[in-house]
Design goal:
CATH architecture: 3-Layer(aba) Sandwich
Strand content: 25-35%
Order of helices and strands: HHEHEEEEH
Shape: elongated
Structural class: alpha/beta
Strand order of the largest sheet: 2-1-3-4-5
CATH class: Alpha Beta
Distance between the termini: 68 Å
Radius of gyration: 18 Å
Helix content: 25-40%
CATH superfamily: ABC-type transport auxiliary lipoprotein component
Number of strands: 5
Largest sheet: 5 strands, mixed
Number of helices: 4
Length: 173
């Protein structure tokens, strides 16, 4: 019986996982970055859905929403379009998401490969793997699953910010 009470207490302390929120992954615009006069279509792959018993994951759709809003806010492209109308195609692939199983401070790492293809020319004009991490301290949230979600969102947000800076520096027309 004491083991059952201990397990019940652990689950109550841990809570249930919740998916990442796109708004929490959007980069707060510091300034409008110099960018392209072309529009872009965005696709994301490699993400996972969050299950009730697992840790918070980043779905393709949530990352795409955060990436598109960050692009709009930073203005590194003239706008977001469907592929048939866009000048560029941005493919973002979440290759790795590393999360701790337990702990007080939670550090999450993410690696995303960004590839931009000029649809007029049919050539890859930008490709970069970006690795970032973010730590959420124990004081930020009581439940461990909340700290993991917050660290995951922070790592994704920092990854998108580094992408925006890199693509701005690339000087696409």
């Amino acid at each position: 019986m004491p083991v059952a009470l201990l397990l019940a207490g652990m689950f109550a302390f841990a809570g249930c996982s919740t998916p990442t929120q796109p708004a929490a992954m959007v980069v707060a615009p510091q300034a409008v970055l110099p960018g392209s006069s072309g529009t872009v279509a965005v696709t994301v792959s490699g993400g996972d859905e969050t299950s009730a018993t697992g840790t918070s994951q980043i779905s393709d759709e949530d990352f795409r929403q955060a990436l598109e809003q960050s692009i709009r806010d930073s203005r590194v492209f003239a706008g977001i379009e469907e592929r048939s109308d866009a000048r560029y195609q941005l493919d973002a692939h979440i290759g790795m998401l590393s999360q701790p199983m337990m702990g007080f401070s939670m550090t999450v790492s993410i690696e995303v490969n960004y590839r931009i293809t000029d649809l007029r020319e049919g050539t890859v004009v930008f490709e970069e793997n970006i690795d970032t991490e973010h730590t959420t301290s124990a004081g930020a949230a009581f439940a461990a699953v909340t700290r993991i979600r917050m660290a995951t969102e922070g790592a994704a947000r920092e990854n998108i910010a580094q992408f925006l800076e890199a693509v701005s520096a690339a000087g696409l027309d």
